[in-house]
């Protein structure tokens, strides 16, 4: 065992905690998957939370920052990239639940400056599910600021009829989150940090990390191991801006699997995010969350989280009516920034889930393999 892996395993033994089923076996499994992954992908620090029937076990590896060698814990803050979209979606579901918007509303009905544009014909549901007609993955550089993004939307012309094609897009779901917050009469960051996150019981989750929590914020590293953190951009908070810990994401997973513990408007919001709106190649699109029939093969989960699924347009098959009550389903979402990689998967019918956060962006397939192995072992 080389020195790097030794450090990883020692960190695990010191920092892991919890009382999940078959704790020793689970630790052996997670260690056996994570140690070689970190070595192969050159990941400085990684944290795993395993949720089993309301109990959580944490597995912490390596360092939150290489220069200080501060160990990762379940309170370390990681950028979660597009996993932020599930929080955005929950806020939109909450806005619908309390009556400030409807998913069927046209986008321009909520943003006066978009009247007379393509958004007169695009619904909030289409924005939230990446089907407005071909908005790109990222804003063009010239439009990637708060000051320029509305002008970009005003001028944008769809490639496809609204609702026809799924093209994964930060501007699309980002605009949905922007409108949801506007409907609540708050800037998005306030709507998240003062309304939604407290209602979810999340006390270590932020859009903007406060100064007194800066010591918990992990340093991200790019492919060349250079320090990097997320940079400002148009609708960054809405699309990829949340920073959180495995402990808070485990709470979030539990809230998603046990929404009956929350106030009624949030129960309705989570039900809205879990609803299946259309299918694409075996994946069912919810609001933020993506789902699959469970049990699921590793290959099917890899395919659903593949680069072609994220980068290419796909014809959608709308579910009419939308599927609101589905028994055996796995929900998941990946997220990445330049220096971080995140993955969450959970199965409400089995009351199990996995959270994996790292301070390096590494391939989605490697995250999926670890999570699938853990969930499969828990379900045996």
Overview of this protein structure:
37% of the residues lie in helices and 21% in strands. The chain has 380 residues and is of the alpha+beta class. A hairpin with a 4-residue loop joins β16 (340-347) and β17. α2 (23-41) packs antiparallel against α13 and α3 packs across α10. The chain is globular and about 60 Å long. Residues 1-21 have low confidence and may be disordered.
Characteristic key phrases:
380 residues, alpha+beta, eleven-stranded antiparallel β-sheet, 37% helix, globular
Reconstruct the topology from this structure.
Elements: H1 3-15, E1 17-18, H2 23-41, E2 45-52, E3 55-65, E4 70-71, E5 78-79, H3 84-97, H4 124-128, H5 149-155, E6 165-166, H6 170-183, H7 188-199, E7 220-221, E8 227-228, H8 236-240, E9 243-244, H9 246-257, H10 264-274, E10 276-280, E11 283-285, E12 290-293, H11 298-304, H12 307-311, E13 314-315, E14 317-323, E15 329-337, E16 340-347, E17 352-358, H13 364-378
Antiparallel strand pairs: 1-3, 2-3, 2-17, 3-4, 5-9, 6-13, 7-8, 10-11, 10-14, 11-12, 12-15, 15-16, 16-17
Helix pairs in contact: 1-2, 2-13, 3-6, 3-10, 6-7
């Amino acid at each position: 065992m080389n020195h790097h892996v030794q450090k990883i395993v020692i960190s695990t033994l010191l920092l892991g905690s919890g009382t999940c089923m078959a704790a020793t076996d689970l630790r052996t499994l997670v260690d056996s998957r994570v140690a070689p992954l970190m070595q192969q992908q050159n990941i400085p620090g990684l944290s795993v939370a395993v949720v089993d029937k309301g109990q959580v076990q944490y597995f912490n590896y390596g360092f939150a920052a290489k220069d200080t060698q501060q160990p990762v814990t379940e309170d370390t803050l990681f950028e979660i990239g597009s996993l932020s979209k599930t929080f955005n979606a929950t806020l939109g579901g909450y806005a619908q639940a309390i009556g400030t918007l409807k998913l069927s509303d046209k986008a321009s009905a909520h943003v006066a400056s978009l009247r007379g544009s393509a958004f007169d014909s695009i619904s909030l549901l289409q924005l939230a599910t990446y089907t407005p007609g071909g908005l790109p993955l990222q804003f063009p550089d010239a439009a990637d600021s708060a000051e320029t993004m509305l002008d970009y939307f005003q001028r944008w012309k769809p490639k496809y009829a609204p609702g026809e094609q799924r093209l994964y897009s930060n501007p699309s779901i980002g605009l949905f989150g922007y409108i949801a917050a506007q409907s609540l009469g708050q800037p998005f960051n306030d709507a998240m940090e003062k309304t939604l996150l407290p209602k979810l019981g999340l006390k270590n989750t932020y859009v903007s990390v406060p100064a007194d929590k800066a010591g918990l914020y992990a340093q991200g590293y790019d492919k060349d191991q250079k320090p990097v953190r997320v940079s400002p951009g148009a609708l960054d908070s809405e699309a990829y801006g949340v920073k959180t810990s495995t402990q808070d994401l485990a709470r979030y997973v539990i809230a998603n699997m046990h929404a009956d513990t929350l106030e009624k408007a949030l129960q309705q919001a989570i039900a809205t995010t879990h609803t299946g709106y259309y299918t694409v190649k075996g994946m069912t699109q919810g609001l933020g969350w993506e789902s699959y029939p469970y049990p699921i093969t590793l290959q099917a989960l890899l395919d659903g989280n593949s680069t072609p699924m994220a980068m290419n347009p796909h014809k959608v098959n709308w579910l009419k009516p939308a599927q609101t009550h589905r028994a055996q389903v796995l929900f998941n979402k990946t997220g990445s920034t330049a220096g971080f990689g995140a993955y969450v998967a959970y199965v409400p019918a089995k009351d199990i889930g996995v959270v994996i956060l790292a301070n390096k962006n590494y391939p989605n397939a490697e995250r999926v393999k670890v999570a699938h192995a853990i969930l499969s072992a828990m379900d045996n």
